[in-house]
Amino acid sequence: MESKIISISRIFKRLQNGYGRRSLVRHLRDAFRPNHSTFIVEKAESVREFWELAHKDKSHLWLSGTPPSEVFERLKISERLKKRHLNILNVGVGEGYCTSALAKLGHYVDVLDISLNALANVENFTENQFVSSSDLSSGKYDLILHHLVAQHMSHQDLSTQLRHLVGSLNSEGLIALQFVSSSKNDQFITEDDDLSAQMHGGVFRSTQFITKIVESCGGIVNNVHTMESWHNSDAVFQTIHVKRQSI
Hints:
The protein is α/β, with parallel strands linked by helices.
């Protein structure tokens, strides 16, 4: 019952704005081609190829079409975004809604994504585009958004990326990172070599585990927010705020 209530409330919320209505239309489109998602997973031989195919196919199942207001609410950054002209990095651009919205708010937006197809979709809204986090400038960003990304990454890849992300924060900068835990076992951690879990967004981590990753990368977890349980699964969405450790 809880999952149905969440799902219905999400539908009503998305009917209230243009981004949300666009998202619902994409959901309906995918509902009439049920085999396309399986085709992408079966054809891809790597995570990078998986995302290139997903963006080429414009699959709403795999791409985040979440309205920006929902993303900002989930990441607990709405108040921070009221500041003017922030240097922002958006990690994992999805369908480009958040990138576009952040630019329209007057912020300077860079993007990081594994897919060249994804980056091409947001080139008109961005200052700089990156495929590798190793290319990021040190000490630049006021805010980094990391939404619906971590559960598609291996622990090693996430750790490597976070090390670069933390280094790219300025002294007051913040990473707002969403990750997934298990509602059945809050200590459950997905095996690191599970490629299928990475494609399906099923890489689960405990709060303690992701905190250790953050701290090993030179960051510190300031806040932990439990957002919601994802319908029809045992996934619990959580958000952490990460800052640089004091030197």
